[in-house]
């Protein structure tokens, strides 16, 4: 058609186009519907019917083209369409038809200037025929497609029965296009705009079903179909008729209630489609009308179900009235107003009751799933089979939800549905996700903790009974002072009598402000024996805090033992300020009276101690713990832990922290020796370790923060070795800390403990000695744990809720705070007359019946409208190999806006860019901290917990100070200021502001390079690292920065052996015995390992760095070779080390042992990326290689070094003219310094050649462009970081290439072939100093690649540069399609063909031929494997 009339896209079409742009080359927009007809069909007549309908409906003939970067549509002329005819009528045909149908549904359409529909007719067995329709969503919605199929069958029926049929032009989609154009300028449009702006006056919180996988994900999805039974469908029908409610409203209400309960959210936004056909004419018009609208719904848990249904219907009615305002515009308005970058919903719901029936035709409908879903979960309810049963299709992201999780959601939905129908008068909080059996399990089966114990006993009685058993055993050691059980008991009795005489009675509070000394334990026991309640006070507390505690507790007696003038002055001040009696336990006369046990005056429900904890408001509160609760703790711990009278425990904790009880009163009840660390031993690790060794201590309790500080000590391994039981608690235990602790304490049983002070020290425990994943386990004896939602309903297993604790360990409440006691200690709804404690902690039950701790309720913060779990970010940061500790908090900037700030401790301070990139792969953008601050240590409170109040303000740190805002000086700087402001989302930008401190990262660099592409400025990605300010970049663009990257003297560098024909100067032993392999976790390294395992008998020592080395290695190995042939895994020895560290990061003993064990080194480790900070590259690639060289020289071991052909550069500099780069060359004048990675690999080779003069026997393997395995196309895990694959992705998505690239040769070096070639060469090479060029010289021209792609229905268009620029301009907002070209072409832009470097491999080819090795041909089959893998892993659909 010449000069067709072009029309813009409608709003519904534009939404589909946007998705196509975002998820390019997927089947996401494919609609596939069909019917199976139970009679034979005349396919010729059917084809005629199809063509009549195509002729009648203009929308079917819509085509799309690009005009000045914008999509436009036109109606193509009618052409006869030939339906595809297939035959699956053989015995296995139905199965093959199902496979064909699913595959065909997933084949994407080509969008531009081509038919966007496909129709096939398939013969099946038993005279059945399937009619299959696949339409692109741009030209049709489900309503249209159903109508079209129905019309085709009706026309067919007329034609086959020779009835007259009149061709009538159906209503045209053009009328809708024109109407929408006028609508967008109408007052109605503005009214609808205002409605949606008011509806979303605040940003709704995302409704997320999964917080474990919040990072960017692709659209690959599964469908799980569940059927609603006829009986249940009938019950729903009866209920709906009775209460006059539609099926849509009923099921939407049930679904939203289910999601609300699963996510613990009251305010939801669920996406739902609307028909969007305003009148009879539009309902009979084919085309894309349907639009999705966000359905915000608030659930008041006190409503009954009928009220909720009525509310839902009213909200829906208002939304329907305003449905024509496009979702894209709603989102655009919100983003403009709030700087919001997300979507409004991540869950969708639809309800369809349309049926496809044709008179006198027996048929069955089917819909095919296209394999993609942009939401985490989409539920579609339909009855298109018309069999009396509703069909529930759950489409879900495979990266976000598992099959089991979706099945659980369905089970909950059915439970809710049944409960709501049976008792609609129930409140929403009472309608339960759970069955009676579920509830019984959560309340009873998971809390089978009953334990009998002597409930009438008091804490000091248990101690006195132990004194009778072991009177002469040592009870207490502190500062080398030793007291036997008898001596400790007698002194406590003597002091207790004095206290009674001074008026101590049951429940009267006696303060203890005692240094760590024998008097501390004497004082505690004496108060208990006297009948009183002890209040522990740390003498290190500020005087004002001590005074406040004494006032608040109304304490009038204080036991002290001041050791200095300053301490005596403090005590004197307190005596006056609080009016209390002070008793100095240094007074020896206190221990001269009767030493026998006192008569007991207490009952079990009298107070044993009051301990103050910090409140969320900042005011401390006194927790009252009774004797009965401590008694229960003592007996509960005995059941699980290995207490023995022969053991000793170290008391490390401050007396003011309740876990001090676990270190003192508990062990003293079992005859264990308590060794109390003094103030110095508490703080200095080596003194503590000396104490442990000296006293044969086997038991230690500490917080994770304290454990972390001990692990930093060089002597920690020896220090932890004697320990047999380690109790960790008081704050969350991370997997990293646990893993490190397991390594240094191999003989110890390690327990993760959990318990708020209000539950008497510990209420849950888990042995984690062998565990990798941390939970807080199960409740201790006589304790019940419930996980409840905000209305205190039980939540299902796997669902997050708040932890509530019941049982005999509960505190009485808060001292003199009945209001707070009533708020936190509430009636137990599951046990009449009992109380439970609301912890404020979040958790969820695991499938194993343990509890996973998920942080504090008050750790949830809001930043930019998003609710964020700070612990989730911390957990992610700690998994970074350079981060040992991480704390994330919110801070406020100068504009009173909250931002996230991360405080980190680690061996190495890595760059902000690296951290942002790392988190960006794992968390959504809004969860990435704005600032990162590295500290020497995280500050701790006296209780050894993180002291967040002491974290420094990042604004005051020099490296984060704002620069003076200097305005742009020229047009280049003006444009860069505009772009930085736009891309980085910051208001004002000065020309001396640092790109990375403003929040820039590699993605932002690519976006800016894309935007400036047409200006042909001489900038590439590395320039942003070299020149991180606008002033510097501007100077670079304008030629004011002179680059001195030319090395003039060739003789400055050593050269490889130039003549391989000469007699050998140095013999190099071939690979025979054990091998040290570095870089084994890399893509090539893993395949080198595979070759060594399968083609040698060597034991391979793999040096790997980072935490969880063995686990990470196994995961990678299984990823690459999970279905491969057998291999002897016992020959793999994993060694934790680091090539960039001295002695490879090993101890001198391990280093020497390794040197003795290996006879060959294969060095394949390296930092492989193409821009960043040179210090990073230098440390790994240069210094790391030097460490390997030193190892080889020390032990006389041959080195096989894996380098890169990239060191050849791409053009000559200066006066150099010979661009031939062969195996006998190193420096030929190439521009190796233009790229930091290449420079570092070049310098590594220089070091190797220099070391040969010192006796190093070495061979170098320069590797080319590695590509997927030849066997199956599998590529490296981080495929998105590979420049060559980015280039392929760009070509495949843009479907175009500049004409001058048509004869470019492309290298494909399959990784398995390369690894085989390298190991073959190592096994046979006896010449030291040899260099191999390991690349597949069987290159293919771009034209051949284009031809091969054409056979796969992928058409690549060669364009002149003007047309190519225009196409890129269109794709400027579509980063995944451009990044490969931008990075590739910015580097190639200024290469002079006359000075181009040419790489030769003649010597290597001849050598490989002699060994029988041959590079593979790059065939159509191999390229298809590469494409299939790129699609399989979602690389062709995801945004980089």
From TrEMBL:
PROSITE patterns assigned: AMP_BINDING, CARRIER, PHOSPHOPANTETHEINE
Record's keyword terms, sorted: Ligase, Phosphopantetheine, Phosphoprotein
GO molecular function: ligase activity; phosphopantetheine binding
Record-annotated Carrier domain positions: 967-1041
Keyword Ligase: yes
GO annotation terms (biological process): amino acid activation for nonribosomal peptide biosynthetic process; lipid biosynthetic process; secondary metabolite biosynthetic process
CDD domains found in the cross-reference section: A_NRPS (cd05930)
InterPro entries: AA_adenyl_dom, ACP-like_sf, AMP-bd_C, AMP-bd_C_sf, AMP-binding, AMP-binding_CS, AMP-dep_synth/lig_dom, CAT-like_dom_sf
Recorded family membership: Belongs to the ATP-dependent AMP-binding enzyme family.
Protein name, entry field: Amino acid adenylation domain-containing protein/thioester reductase domain-containing protein
Organism, scientific name: Desulfosporosinus lacus DSM 15449
């Amino acid at each position: 058609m010449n000069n067709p009339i072009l029309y813009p896209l409608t709003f519904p079409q534009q939404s589909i186009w946007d998705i196509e742009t975002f998820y390019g080359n997927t089947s996401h927009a494919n609609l596939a519907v069909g019917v199976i007809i139970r009679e034979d069909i005349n396919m010729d007549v059917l084809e005629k019917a199809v063509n009549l309908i195509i002729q009648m409906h203009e929308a079917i003939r819509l085509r799309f083209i690009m005009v000045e970067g914008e999509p436009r549509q036109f109606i193509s002329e009618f052409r006869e369409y030939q339906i595809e005819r297939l035959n699956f009528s053989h015995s296995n045909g139905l199965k093959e038809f199902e496979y064909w149908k699913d595959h065909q549904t997933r084949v994407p359409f080509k969008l531009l200037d081509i038919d966007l529909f496909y129709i096939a007719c398939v013969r099946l067995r038993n005279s059945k025929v399937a009619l299959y329709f696949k339409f692109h969503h741009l030209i049709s919605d489900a309503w249209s497609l159903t109508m079209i199929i129905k019309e085709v069958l009706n026309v067919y029926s007329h034609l086959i029965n020779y009835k007259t049929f009149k061709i009538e032009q159906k209503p045209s989609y053009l009328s809708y296009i024109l109407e929408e154009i006028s609508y967008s300028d109408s007052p109605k449009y503005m009214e609808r705009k205002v409605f949606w702006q008011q509806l979303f006056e605040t940003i709704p919180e995302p409704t997320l079903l999964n917080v474990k996988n919040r990072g960017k994900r692709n659209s690959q999805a599964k469908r799980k179909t569940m059927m609603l039974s006829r009986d249940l469908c009938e019950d729903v029908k009866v209920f709906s008729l009775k209460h006059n409610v539609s099926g849509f409203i009923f099921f939407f209400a049930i679904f939203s209630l289910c999601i609300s309960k699963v996510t613990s959210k009251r305010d939801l936004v669920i996406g739902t489609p609307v028909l969007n056909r305003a009148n009879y004419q539009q309902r009979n018009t084919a085309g894309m009308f349907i639009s999705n609208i966000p359905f915000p719904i608030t659930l008041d848990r006190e409503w009954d179900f009928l009220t909720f249904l009525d509310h839902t219907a009213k909200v829906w009615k208002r939304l329907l009235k305003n449905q024509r305002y496009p979702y894209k515009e709603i989102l655009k308005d919100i983003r403009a107003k709030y700087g919001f970058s997300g979507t409004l919903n991540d869950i969708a719901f639809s309800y369809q009751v349309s049926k496809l029936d044709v008179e006198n035709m027996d048929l069955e409908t089917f819909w095919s799933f296209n394999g993609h879903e942009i939401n985490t979960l989409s539920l579609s309810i339909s009855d298109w089979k018309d069999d009396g049963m509703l069909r529930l299709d759950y489409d879900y992201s495979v990266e976000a939800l598992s099959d089991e999780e979706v099945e659980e959601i369905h089970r909950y939905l059915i439970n809710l549905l049944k409960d709501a129908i049976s008792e609609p008068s129930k409140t929403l909080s009472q309608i339960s996700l759970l069955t009676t059996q579920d509830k019984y399990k959560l309340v009873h089966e998971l809390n089978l903790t009953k334990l009998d114990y002597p409930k009438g006993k008091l804490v000091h009685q248990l101690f006195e009974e132990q004194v009778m058993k072991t009177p002469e055993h040592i009870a207490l050691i502190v500062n080398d002072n030793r007291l036997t059980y008898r001596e400790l008991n007698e002194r406590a009795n003597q002091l207790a009598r004095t206290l009674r005489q001074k008026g101590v009675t049951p429940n009267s509070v006696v303060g203890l402000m005692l240094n760590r000394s024998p008097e501390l334990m004497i004082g505690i026991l004496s108060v208990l024996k006297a009948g009183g309640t002890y209040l522990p006070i740390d003498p290190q507390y500020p005087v004002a805090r001590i005074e406040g505690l004494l006032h608040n507790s109304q304490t009038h007696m204080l036991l002290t033992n001041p050791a200095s003038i300053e301490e005596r002055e403090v005590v004197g001040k307190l005596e006056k300020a609080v009016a209390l009696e002070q008793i100095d336990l240094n007074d020896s006369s206190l221990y001269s009276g009767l030493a026998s046990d006192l008569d007991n005056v207490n009952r079990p429900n009298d107070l044993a101690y009051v301990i103050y904890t910090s409140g969320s408001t900042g005011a401390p509160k006194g927790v009252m713990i009774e004797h009965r609760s401590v008694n229960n703790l003592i007996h509960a711990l005995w059941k699980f832990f290995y207490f023995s009278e022969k053991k000793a425990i170290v008391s490390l904790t401050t007396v003011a922290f309740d876990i001090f009880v676990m270190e003192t009163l508990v062990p003293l009840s079992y005859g264990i020796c308590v060794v109390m660390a003094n103030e110095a031993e508490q703080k200095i690790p080596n003194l503590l370790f000396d104490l442990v060794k000296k006293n044969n201590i086997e038991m230690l309790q500490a917080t994770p923060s304290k454990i972390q500080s001990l692990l930093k000590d060089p002597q920690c391994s020896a220090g932890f070795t004697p320990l047999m039981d380690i109790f960790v608690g008081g704050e969350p235990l991370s997997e990293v800390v646990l893993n490190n602790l397991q390594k240094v304490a191999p003989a110890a049983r390690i327990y993760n403990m959990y318990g708020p002070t209000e539950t008497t020290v510990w209420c849950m425990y888990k042995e984690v000695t062998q565990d990798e994943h941390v939970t807080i386990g199960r409740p201790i004896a006589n304790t019940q744990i419930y996980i409840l939602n905000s209305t205190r309903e039980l939540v299902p297993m796997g669902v997050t809720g708040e932890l509530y604790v019941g049982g005999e360990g509960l505190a009485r409440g808060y001292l003199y705070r009945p209001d707070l006691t009533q708020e936190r200690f509430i009636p137990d709804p599951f046990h009449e007359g009992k109380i439970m404690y609301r912890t404020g902690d979040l958790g969820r039950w695991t499938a194993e019946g343990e509890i996973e701790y998920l942080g504090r309720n008050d750790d949830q913060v809001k930043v930019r409208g998003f609710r964020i779990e700070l612990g989730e970010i911390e957990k992610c940061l700690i998994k970074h190999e350079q981060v040992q500790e991480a704390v994330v908090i919110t801070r406020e900037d100068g504009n009173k806006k909250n931002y996230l700030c991360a405080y980190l401790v680690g061996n190495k301070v890595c760059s902000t860019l690296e951290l942002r990139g790392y988190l960006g792969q794992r968390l959504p953008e809004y969860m990435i901290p704005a600032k990162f601050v590295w500290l020497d240590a995280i500050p701790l409170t006296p209780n050894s917990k993180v002291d967040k109040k002491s974290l420094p303000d990042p604004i005051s740190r020099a490296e984060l100070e704002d620069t003076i805002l200097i305005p742009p000086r020229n047009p280049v700087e003006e444009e860069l200021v505009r772009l930085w402001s736009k891309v980085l989302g910051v208001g004002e930008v000065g020309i001396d502001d640092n790109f990375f401190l403003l929040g820039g990262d590699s993605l932002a660099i690519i976006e800016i390079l894309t935007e400036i592409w047409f200006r042909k400025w001489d900038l590439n990605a590395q320039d942003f690292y070299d020149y991180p300010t606008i002033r510097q970049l501007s100077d670079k663009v304008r030629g004011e920065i002179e680059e001195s990257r030319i090395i003039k003297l060739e003789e400055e560098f050593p050269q490889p052996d130039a003549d391989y024909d000469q007699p050998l100067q140095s013999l190099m032993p071939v690979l025979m015995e054990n091998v040290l392999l570095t870089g084994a976790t890399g893509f090539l390294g893993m395949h080198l390992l595979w070759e060594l395992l399968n083609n040698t008998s060597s034991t391979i020592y793999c040096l790997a760095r980072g935490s969880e080395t063995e686990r990470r290695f196994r995961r990678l190995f299984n990823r690459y070779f999970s279905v491969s042939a057998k291999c002897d895994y016992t020959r793999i020895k994993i060694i934790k080390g680091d090539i960039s560290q001295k002695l490879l990061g090993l101890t001198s003993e391990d280093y020497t042992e390794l040197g003795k064990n290996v006879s060959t080194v294969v060095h394949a480790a390296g930092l492989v990326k193409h821009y960043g900070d040179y210090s990073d590259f230098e440390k790994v690639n240069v210094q790391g290689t030097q460490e390997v060289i030193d190892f080889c020289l020390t032990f006389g071991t041959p080195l096989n070094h894996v380098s890169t052909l990239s060191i050849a550069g791409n053009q000559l500099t200066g006066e150099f003219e010979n661009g031939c780069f062969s195996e006998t060359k190193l420096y030929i004048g190439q521009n190796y310094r233009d790229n930091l990675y290449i420079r570092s690999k070049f310098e590594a080779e220089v070091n190797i050649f220099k070391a040969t003069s010192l006796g190093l026997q070495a061979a170098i393997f320069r590797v080319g462009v590695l590509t997927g395995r030849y066997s199956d196309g599998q590529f490296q895990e981080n495929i998105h970081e590979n420049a060559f694959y980015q280039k392929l992705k760009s070509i495949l998505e843009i479907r175009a290439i500049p004409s001058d690239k048509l004869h470019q040769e492309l290298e494909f070096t399959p990784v398995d072939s390369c690894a085989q070639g390298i190991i073959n060469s190592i096994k046979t090479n006896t010449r030291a100093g040899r260099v191999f060029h390991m690349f597949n010289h069987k290159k293919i021209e771009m034209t051949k690649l284009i031809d091969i792609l054409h056979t796969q229905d992928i058409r690549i268009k060669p364009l002149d540069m003007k047309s190519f620029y225009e196409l890129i301009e269109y794709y400027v907002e579509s980063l995944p399609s451009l990044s490969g070209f931008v990075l590739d072409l910015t580097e190639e832009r200024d290469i002079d063909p006359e000075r181009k470097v040419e790489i030769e491999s003649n010597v290597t080819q001849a050598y490989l031929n002699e060994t029988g090795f041959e590079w593979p041909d790059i065939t159509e089959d191999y390229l298809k494997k590469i494409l299939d893998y790129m699609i399989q892993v979602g690389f062709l659909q995801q945004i980089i």
